[in-house]
Amino acid sequence: MAQISFEDVCKTYEGGHSALHGLNLDIVDGEFMVLVGPSGCGKSTALRMIAGLEDITGGTLRINGQVANDLAPRDRDIAMVFQSYALYPHLTVADNIAFGLRVRNVKREIIEKKVRETAALLELTDYLDRKPARLSGGQRQRVAMGRALVRSPHAFLMDEPLSNLDARLRGQMRAEIAKLQRMSAVTTVYVTHDQVEAMTMGHRVAVMNKGTLQQLDTPRRLYDRPVNLFVASFIGSPPINFLEGTIAAKDGKPVVQLGAFTLSLGAIGERAEIVPGRKVIVGIRPEALKRSGDTGGVGTISARTAFVEDLGATLLVHLDVQGATMIHSTVIEEEKDLMSVRPRLRSMIDSGHPVTTGDMLTFAVDPLAIHIFDAERGMAL
């Protein structure tokens, strides 16, 4: 088993591009840690540093307390599962799984026993004589995992292992990988850009952006208590709504004014940073907008339906808001085409309440479901 620690770890490439800025991260023994973030955020660089495939230009990496900055990959006892599976096409499933043991000159009878046990665990027993070309994508991914699992390494490293699978297989493999990790209790570091994978698999999730760790927490706390605009916008599907607001007072109680709409703050208003006149950004998740028969009252927002996505059990309703200013998610701040499109309010509602384009809808907003961020720094208040 392995405990892995990053202590002010930096990575700067030739030409001056900086991929990691002082990363501090402790991965405890037996933990399933997920590194998540958009492309170029530094998550794969951090994973490759653990494997010894990427040099460290600053700081210290420790594995089980030992400084590993200059430790050769073969001396780290770490197994890696790649996005491309990296199977040997001329070898059978059994030989692919056994490959790492054979190069270590493990005795033949031990190899055969371990291969049988691993194949049974991964439900590959009936495919041991097949070659990769005769396997489905999900089966190939299980073979790649079996090749890592059979070695009983100190840690597993997984770099976007499900990105080549279709949506149905991804869901199935998420559950299988999480189950295998629980059974083996091997420290696992999993890299993905998919926040659904991160939220459903990780014991803890490290959200990264532009080479910097934004927040490290359990999936539930990332969703309920994001520390800044980036985390709030990256975690959650569909993405959170952001609106410009100003803290005010009504009947002696703090409220937030969103243009023509006024929302109660409840217990949030008791926080020291919530002072009248302060400019804020209000985050409201689509599922927190509940249809209401009231119109124009405190705690409601009204908007006109632009279009509806029917997702089966729920409807994702896109709405145009008049009288309030919406802003784009920080996740798409560099997507120029998207930035030119006016942001719309999104709401998730039960499909049993049909909605059509042009309908005027009113939503009640629970004060406990509101996220308040400082307008200048983007940090949660």
TrEMBL record:
Keyword entries, A-Z: ATP-binding, Cell inner membrane, Cell membrane, Membrane, Nucleotide-binding, Translocase, Transport
Family matches, as InterPro entries: AAA+_ATPase (IPR003593), ABC_transporter-like_ATP-bd (IPR003439), ABC_transporter-like_CS (IPR017871), ABC_transpr_MalK-like (IPR015855), ABC_transpr_MalK/UgpC-like (IPR047641), Mo/tungstate-bd_C_term_dom (IPR008995), NA-bd_OB-fold (IPR012340), OB_MalK-like (IPR040582)
Residue ranges of every copy of the ABC transporter domain listed in the record: 4-235
Lipid bilayer topology: Peripheral membrane protein
One Pfam family this sequence matches: ABC_tran
Subcellular location: Cell inner membrane
Molecular functions (GO terms): ABC-type transporter activity; ATP binding; ATP hydrolysis activity
SUPFAM superfamilies referenced in this protein's UniProt entry, alphabetically: MOP-like (SSF50331), P-loop containing nucleoside triphosphate hydrolases (SSF52540)
GO CC terms: ATP-binding cassette (ABC) transporter complex, substrate-binding subunit-containing
GO BP annotations listed: carbohydrate transport
Major subcellular site: membrane
Cited NCBIfam families: PRK11650.1
Similarity comment text for this entry: Belongs to the ABC transporter superfamily.
Protein name: sn-glycerol-3-phosphate ABC transporter ATP-binding protein UgpC
